[in-house]
Amino acid sequence: MRRKDEIQRTDGNLGVLLPGMGGAVSTTFLAGVEAIRRGFSLPIGSLTQMGTVRLGKRFEYRIPRLREFVPLAPLDDLVFGGWDVFPDNCYDAALQAGVLNREHLDAVRAFLEELRPWPAVFDQAFVKNLAGPNVKPEASHLELVEAIKTDIDAFRHDHTLSRCVMIWCGSTEAYLEPSEVHTSLSNFEAGLKDSDPNISPSMIYAYAALTSGVPYVNGAPNLTVDIPAMVELADQCKVPIAGKDLKTGQTMMKTILAPGLKARMLGLSGWYSTNILGNRDGMVLDDKDSFKTKEESKLSVLETILQPQLYSDLYGDFYHKVVISYYPPRGDNKEGWDCIDIFGWLGYPMQIKLDFLCRDSILAAPLVLDLVLFMDLAQRAAMTGIQEWLSFYFKTPQCAAELYPEHDLFIQLMKLKNTLRYLMGEDQITHLGLDYYYAI
Ligand SMILES: NC(=O)c1ccc[n+]([C@@H]2O[C@H](COP(=O)([O-])OP(=O)(O)OC[C@H]3O[C@@H](n4cnc5c(N)ncnc54)[C@H](O)[C@@H]3O)[C@@H](O)[C@H]2O)c1
Prior knowledge:
Strand order of the largest sheet: 3-2-1-4-5-6-11
Number of domains: 2
Radius of gyration: 22 Å
Shape: globular
Number of strands: 11
CATH topology of the largest domain: Rossmann fold
Structural class: alpha/beta
CATH class of the largest domain: Alpha Beta
Helix content: 25-40%
Bound molecules: nicotinamide-adenine-dinucleotide
């Protein structure tokens, strides 16, 4: 790992590669970055653009903006490319996604119209409720890997890019159990040669990215890089990987609320979460196999935060249910309801009702921006393999096999900022603070 003065400079343009470029998250991200670059809007929701980091002692009042503290690529250096199963340019795709209104989209129309997705690697076995014409004709896995690598090379060449990051914003793939082909790189590469059906399209993109020296982020709950084969490949290629499933909406609220309840030692008897959403993501998740992938990602959060094995009296027996219902009238404006049954002193029951009328892609877009910039930083700092310090952004943070993931949003934020302090040679902030009062 490189520190401060050894971190490579941000010279040159940074390519952002988006599988799922025509989707709601991608187009909201793209339109937003351009609007911000043109000064039409503030980068609200983006830690890299709006966040600060405290350095040193509290009486020093050293609190720079994150983007002034660490060397991140400027937004003007970002160049975009990507793939989708629909050929529409990003303006038409954004209109179709229905997240941003026409007034906002028209302000960046020319920019969005220039962005046309390349043909995708797609297999309907992994996304049943979707079919589109913009699909690569190659048949074998190895040919498809080569086709994606050719796209990456051409993109690099055409825009004279110095670096790239790939972030999966494509649909959630059907649930895939880790199997033999995922257990090691040699098995995986043999599987590629045999076009093994347990290798999903997202894995083909990821393999092409890593072997091209491009960091890979998984914005969906797919298995993709969360398998030993890809961890091995990332280490071998000296490229960072991170995932999985962007932490927005209901799960973000869960990881804010649950640590609070636990901090106060309040018990939990049940947490019922239901979502209604009507975007294309909702349509894909209406298929039980895609939903199972999402469900796994959403369910693990409470168990890990509440640690029932340590606090059996409080959390040994709670019931956790997550439901997603496709309801077209709402479009991207999701409604997440939580009915939370808790108990306090002498076991007296209480209830919390949370009704979050959120906009999924509005919450997700700034996370995509931050992840692109931080993964590029990680690459320039020679931080290879799993980037657990980016857990802050994910529902199911990827971590080393022997660890359990950290879900608490506030611990995740501290971990992220301490990683940046470490990289830049600043003291860690432990929040001890006794030295303000005593000689220690
Ligand atoms: N919106 C959020 O807040 C949020 C949060 C966490 C995770 N996610 C995940 O992010 C992903 C994108 O969400 P969205 O709301 O933009 O969905 P979306 O359906 O609007 O967009 C997904 C896009 O991916 C394309 N696609 C599907 N398979 C592809 C492939 N193999 N190659 C290239 N393109 C492909 C689809 O055609 C579509 O345009 C989903 O997996 C979703 O579960 C979204």
